Amino acid sequence: MLTYDVIVVGAGGAGMMAALSASEDKSLKVACISKVFPTRSHTGAAQGGINAAMGYRDSTDSPEKHFMDTVKGSDFLADQDAVEFFTSKMPEIISELDYYGVPFSRDGNGNIAQRPFGGASSPRTCYSADKTGHVILHSIYEQCLKNDVEFFDEWILLSLVVEGGNFTGIVVMDIKTGDIVPMKAKSVVIASGGFGRTYWNRTTNAINMTGDGTAACFNAGIPLKDPEFVQFHPTGLASTGILLSEACRGEGGYLLNKDGERFMARYAPEKMELGPRDLVSRSIETEIKEGRGFGEGMNAYVLMDLRHLGKKKIMERLPQVRELAMEFEGVDMLEEPVPIRPSCHYMMGGIHVVDPQTLSTPIDGVHAAGECACVSLHGSNRLGGNSVADVVLFGKYAGIGAKETAHRRTFGSEVKLELETEAWKEKFKTIRNKKDGKNIVEIRKKMAQTMWDNVGIFRDEVEMKQALKDINQLINEYKDTFIGDPAVRYNMAFVNYVEIGNCLTLAKAIVMAAINRKESRGSHTRKDYPTRDDVNFLAHTLVHKKQDQYELEYIPVKITKYKPEERKY
What we know:
Its cofactor is FAD. The chain is α/β, with parallel strands linked by helices. It folds into 3 domains: about 1-230 and about 350-415, FAD/NAD(P)-binding domain (3-Layer(bba) Sandwich), CATH 3.50.50.60; about 235-340, Succinate dehydrogenase/fumarate reductase flavoprotein, catalytic domain (Flavocytochrome C3, Chain A, domain 1, Alpha-Beta Complex); about 430-550, Fumarate reductase/succinate dehydrogenase flavoprotein-like, C-terminal domain (Methane Monooxygenase Hydroxylase, Chain G, domain 1). Helix content is about 35%, strand content about 20%. It has 16 helices and 23 strands. Strands 1, 2, 6, 7, 8, 9 and 16 form a 7-stranded mixed β-sheet that branches. It has a 5-stranded mixed β-sheet with strand order 17-15-10-22-23. Strands 11-14-13-12 form a 4-stranded antiparallel β-sheet.
């Protein structure tokens, strides 16, 4: 049996920062497992930047202003103790990344360059052209190799094993060989990324963002917090949903309807295109619904115009964005506007974290960080530039927390771990050899369609109840799934089977929590309850899974300094 003191699941920004900080203790044996090669993790797709109140571009900026902007952006659902901890620590994290060799863009004085992002009162987003996540990922990976972190690339998490309320280990599959094995540890950091692929074909997320770690924790008894809050990024490419960074608007891009009008003047007259993401996404969809967009139905869009920025600025600061628009939309932004439409982008909710400084969860031994987790830093709406900051900072502190836990705990029993491993081996054999049944791709398509149609940017009870009915039916159909691939090695059909099961598990939690939240707040916009309701819903949703039953409860939001007020931009 593979045995480690600390195991990290996921090798993105949060996972590798956790592995790095845990591995600084040379007495501990640290492993990091990842479905993909670490530098291919989804943090690498983060384009625009990472927020920290460095004060280089605006000397009046401060962690306190960053704190206030984040709480306001969250529509007052963020836990303010977590936000204050985050904003106070971010400047030193940027200095740490600089020390690791992250090649940040620089201003004329040689300081790390900063640009404006939506919902921010100062330009505090540090960046490296439009490849910020990519360069951070590579730099952290080098540091992990230096610290002798042991990587298991192309391995997938199957389940988290908990016995008597205590973590004992995980069951994982080596995709290359088909081997299913137990891994024993004293502590684990789940940092497996978001689950935007519940909206499968209309998301900015990579194909592997299926919530494996989140679902494993949920199945093991850790509740999900605030899963109803799904962020739709305003500027996905119209035909694919692929992300065009908020840096496009940060650098001064315009959003135009079919009349050539900068329509954000109607919705956020002061911030214009730099309003928060939930507001800009709703504004775009409203323009389309009221007939001021281009095209019809799922093919409708508005335009983002960057031509006035000039070739020099676009080539210096937005080179990757230009390449994406050319490759996937056939449009050169130097010469013409780019068709865009909102796309599912980020999950504000996730694994319930109970301590923002150790990233511990209700199960002893389990820590969680990054998009798979809910601290809650982002509340009901995340500000651009706060996600890369989130993964790096909370990833680091999750690693510190897991390190301390590993020193405190001993290894648990292997009995349930072995039984769970044998059950997964039997499932793999059964699914591989099954000759007929429900088509997994059809299940995936139906899940994506009902989520986009019924649990999208604008929601109401009738549509969401239809989504719940559809998801329940698909969960039943999933039990009789046929994948059509008998291979043992590199059986990607089985990997997809596991991933779709995780997506369905999480989709049901999203829908149930959304139906029950009878208000509009941040990214959760109800047509039938159009106003925010602080009397009944200034609270976090917790969804518990007990066997096949889902149960909801609410816990208070931690408010320290900023009392809820009307959110205007």
